[in-house]
Amino acid sequence: MPGSRPPEVKIRRSFPDVLAGGIFVLIGGAFVAGSLGYDLGTPLRMGPGAFPLLVGSIVAALGLAIVVKGLVAGEVIVFGSIPWRAVAVIVVAVLFFGFAVRGLGFVPTSAVTALLTTLASSRVRPLTAVAVAAGLTVASTLIFVVALQLRIPLWGPWLGF
Amino acid sequence: MELLDNLALGFSTALLIQNVLYCFVGVLLGTAVGVLPGIGPTATVAMLLPITFSFEPVTALIMLAGIYYGAQYGGSTTAILINLPGESSAAVTALDGHEMARQGRAGSALAAAAIGSFIAGTVATVALAVAAPPLARVALRFGPAEYFSLVLLGLIVSITLARGTALKALAMIALGVLFGTVGQDIFTGTPRFVFEQRELYGGFDFVSVAVGMFGVAEILRNLENEQTRAGAVISKVKNLWPTREDRRRMVGPILRGTGLGAALGVLPGGGHVLASFTSYAVEKRISKRQQEFGRGAIEGVAGPESANNAAAQTSFIPLLTLGLPAHPVMALMVGAFIVHGITPGPNVIIDEPALFWGLIASMWIGNVLLVLLNLPLIGVWVRMLRIPYQVLFPMIVLFAAIGTYSLSFNAYDVYAIVFFGILGYILIKCGCEPAPLLLGFVLGPLLEENLRRAMSISRGDASVFVTRPISAVLLVLAVAALVIAVLPAIRRRRETVFTEEE
């Protein structure tokens, strides 16, 4: 008979809950699997694997609980859109900094990182982007290298001088 | 008087010229990030932390502390003038503060916030000076079992204050603890979860975690729906000195707010937000002019602002006496202590009295500077809001990358920003708060170390945690906190408290 179900059985699925729970299960599980490769030791002398095994299991179990709850009585969360362009650009910019700073040196790496990052905004105009990047490069060189004496070469060996 | 001697030592340290200077720099920067939406004190402290490594320890900590309480203060200025709280705890100030500004009473509202914050800061600094030494003495007798239970309690209490469901907050804490296990095991030296990468032997750096979770993730949130920050109507400020009527109405709320804030600030995980909301609720309930609340009641500004500032000061109590951070910024300060070779905890007060009392005295000096700085400079702060976000976020990203790299010139620390930024962004989108993860990450190694020590002292008998009385009490409190966090009645109240914040 339709409509005879008591209201509390009404299922409220929540994608964010399931996703969050899934991430916890995945990471917790990975740490559990990894910790089994280390010495677990005894209660008296716990090995390097024991604590991560314990905490990893807790994370995975909590993740599972969040998934189940998300399938039955999830939290209402507006997930919203993902700014793919910003995500991609910022990831590339930061990775580039880490990868290139030793070889290219402080000034070129900062300039490229800043320029790339400005592109994360869809509203930015090219001229503004260049101006912002130039300004930030000068400012960060002054702050970090001149004022704070950070020991990073201004121009790196990849440039050949 | 021991207290007076201690305070004298503190002031003689804090009044050294370089300490006053960096205290000033700290509160100035803190006010700036408090005013600017989209960049919070946690990301700022994380970015500036590497800079402070070359300072004297006490100078570094004074500056970092200044950023923290400066930000609490700066957030209220924009909340009042343009209804844009720069900090979560200032959201409640906007309710009545902005209404007052619209009625042409911006000056009174700003003065109420400044005077309230100053009184609260003064009282809370004294409370800190009085409460810290006895607490530290108790903590000195703690063994590994007690420390384990204490850290566990601290972590669990932070759930009760986090937004979102308790289940997710708990999972975030555990995940933070788990990430804390990456790197060489402290007892055996075994490298864990490093994928054969020598650069990961030291583990993730907490600066990478903080900058990723609070900086990059926040930028991505802001870039979701870009809009130019509308040319907000900025109220004119005149008559900074409140009328006699306003002054009379401020006294009660300021005193009650100070008391509430000083008490709640000790709780881990954002006690200052809870303090300002509780103070607002209390003032509204006991007021004879309830209908004025939300329509420009000065009590609704003075009370929460005092509570917020008092809580910002007393949240240093668990950090300085137990080594337990009550706020993500405190978690970063734990890192600052460690970098300078000082283990935060009850030993600080004995081994480094000048640092301990100097930091406390500097908070009072910082509060004086805040009042002197803010009322005349309000125009400057408001103008800062015109900085477009297109300039601001590349600056945050670049400074984050440079700052993190300069920690130990390790590119993996920079790559870790990306990892934690993306992970944090997805989790925040799913309704998980990042603060518990950072607390778990910083406290996780302490938890493991004390667990393993306690177990080997007790010859492998896990019952040591419940047979030692202090440890047992702490665990009972932890269970109670957990029950409170999941109890529906209280959860509903928490939800109403935190949804008002949106």
TrEMBL record, chain A:
InterPro entries from the UniProt entry: DUF1468
Bilayer-spanning residue ranges: 18-38, 50-72, 84-107, 127-148
Pfam families: TctB
Superkingdom of source: Bacteria
Keyword vocabulary terms for this entry: Membrane, Transmembrane, Transmembrane helix
Limits of the DUF1468 domain: 19-153
Keyword Metal-binding in annotation: no
Protein name: Tripartite tricarboxylate transporter TctB family protein
Record organism: Nonomuraea jiangxiensis
UniProt lineage: Bacteria, Bacillati, Actinomycetota, Actinomycetes, Streptosporangiales
From TrEMBL, chain B:
Annotated TM spans: 45-69, 109-132, 144-162, 169-188, 200-220, 316-342, 354-375, 387-408, 414-444, 465-490
Domain DUF112: 21-439
Keyword list, A-Z: Membrane, Transmembrane, Transmembrane helix
Keyword Membrane belongs to the record: yes
Any Pfam family hit: TctA
Keyword hit for Transmembrane helix: yes
Protein name: TctA family transporter
Source organism of this protein record: Nonomuraea jiangxiensis
